[in-house]
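Task 17 of the worksheet. Students: predict the tertiary structure of the chain below and write it out as structure tokens. Keep your answer in the requested format; marks are given for formatting as well as content.
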Amino acid sequence: MESRKIFSIIILLLILTAGTPGSSPGRIRVLGSPAGGPDLKVDSAVFFPQPVAGLRTRMIVTVSNKGSPVKQLFWVSVKWGGCQLVNGTYGLDGGATASILFYPLFLQAGKYSLEVTVDPYGEVMETDETNNVLVLWQEVILPKAGGVKAPPTELDFESEEAVWGYIGNLPSGEPSMHALPDYVLMGRLDPNDPNSPFEAQGETSACGTTSLAGILRYLSKKDSSVYNHNIIDTWVRGGGEIDVYSEGFSLADYARGKGFEARVYVDGTFEDVKRFIDMGIPVEMCITTDGSHDEMNVLNGHWIVAVCYWEDMNYGTMIGYYNPWGHLSAIPQRRFELYWTEQNLLGITLWNRFYVAICNKPAPPDMPPSNAGALEKYHGALVEGVSIFLNELGSSIRMIKSGDAGEKIKGLGLLIGTVIFGSMLLIPVSLTLVAEWVWEGIKAAAELIWEGIKALGCKLFGWGCKSKKEYFYYFYSSSPSCECSSLLNDMVRVEAVGYIFTSQVGDAVPVYEYAEVDEQTREVIRYFVSTDPNLPETGAPGVRRFLYGRLGYLNKSEIQGVPNEKLVDYLKTYGIDYDASVSNLWVSQYYLEGSKILWMFNMTSETSWRAFLSPDEAGGTKTFPYVAVDYKGESRGYHFTRDYVVGYVHYNHLRGTAPLYRFYDPDKEEFYLTTDLNDEPKELRPVREMVFSGVVGYVFLEQKPGTVPLYKYHAHEKGAHYLFTTKEIESDKFTRLGVIGYVYEYEEDCTVPLWLFCFRQVKEE
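Model answer:
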């Protein structure tokens, strides 16, 4: 199957990496241009958001034509240092303007001189060639807490939202934005008033009915006097008296009863959700707020409404939604998929990735029919029965609490009938549970007996003896931390403190970090910073202090010409102890030659956080947790270990380079590199049917001085079918299939290492 997500990302990447003409290498000044011809001019170049070191940003260049129309393709280039980006547009009328998008990446913080040139190759004959260049200075800042967003260390939807924040209208001109028309009205009490507040669910957690009310108001343009969660609660839940899960089939039935089209789906994918958004259809999705898979996670169920999605250059696909907690929000799809999972009741899996699509009638002809099968409908009936039981129970409570004597008597009778109905309802539930438990016991016993027979056969006759075999899988990235902010040693990278020198310069002094360890538990209690490499072990009882290592060198006075901050300000903020020797040390906020970023980490424990400093963005570790991809509701995680640098690749597009795409085949659980979007590896899916997993850099298609071939090898043993490396492997375990590009052997300007990570799996077979 072809993925719409891949197509949308590829289109965005093709904009980013638009090819450059193979004509003259430099700008040609055309003499004697005809009077009354075109006159192209660079008007402005703006960034959104402000560039952050290590993260791609969006740059919009505005070009105008002061002369006659341009009827051909023309190019715009952005240059700084040895880096260059090129993009183009076709044609521009006289007096008109055009916006050209670029996605530059700056590795270091500081001020950059950028040269923006329209028609850099002199292919358009213009009346004025002197206004084609705009030179500007742009500040690039360090990643700070709040600027670079690290997900929460534990799954909690409320904490997740606090990290990623709320949304309103996205900036106009967002090229990858897909949204329901006027989606900002979703959830408003009066959809005809853009200033009306959102409806928020009540204390009884009426998330499903509140979400449904928002959808029906949005579709009908009627206000909350017609559709609100209190009205729908009376029909779907316990009327506000009972705090009960909003069952999806009942929500759909209510919407259909009001004249809307409502269809129920299971085993959903984000491609399904995006397709509905593209059709203008709201999707009510059921998630678990703690991302758990336990036997009663339906109790943590929560309904939201998906309303938009877009591609973010830093965080991938973002999913925007109306949360009945009373706001619009958005989180990355790769995080959202951890919460949209199966739902269990008393150990019974009710359904997986459950959602309801609702629209006005008639439904679009390409709206797929409900795919809920007999099992889901049975489970739905089961939950609906529980819901009916609780609804009736709520109704009886309301009657009994009323002041009318007749209503009290009716309520008492209804209460007795409801209890009887509830008792009968438990019979099929109990039988189902008993049957599942018996079946699981039979399977476990059979497996145990079979394993015993095989072990005996191996021992007596040598039949079916198992041996341990190794399987290797590979991941490729330009990030030394495997693109993870959370590391295996329980550290989370929080922010960049500033730049620290790797050797002594000027009046810089060495800075050391100590670990203070509880002698009884052997756990690190805290970290301590000093310029003294020979501090006493410690004066605190039961605590020993160990020299962890030298962080680097910092100046005792401010460095002129760059912004500086005091180290102690960070130490105080994050609770790292220090002595007086570091009280006057300064940290540069711009890159200086011979310096590298000093990172702040938080280390988790059962009781507290412990701040930690390191100039290594991977926090000293070589092995990282990495959820490769979520496929059909299953998050597949591996522990990849950093192995070696394959070579060096450009991190921005240069002339003669092509993007090195990374794809993931969910069937073979394998990452694959290619520069060809029509590539069809033999044992894997065609790349257009794989899951897009990012661009790891840009490689030359023809060999340049200093570059070496990046080979593709086919592996003959189990595990990964393909290996990409610059090494010339002479082994009967691999067959070389050719060269996919050329990378630098050593670091050059505007390049980063291409790391190879390895996942080693040992199986008994």
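Marker's comment: The chain has four domains: 4-140, 157-370, 472-478+623-764, 491-614. The two ends are 33 Å apart (CA to CA).
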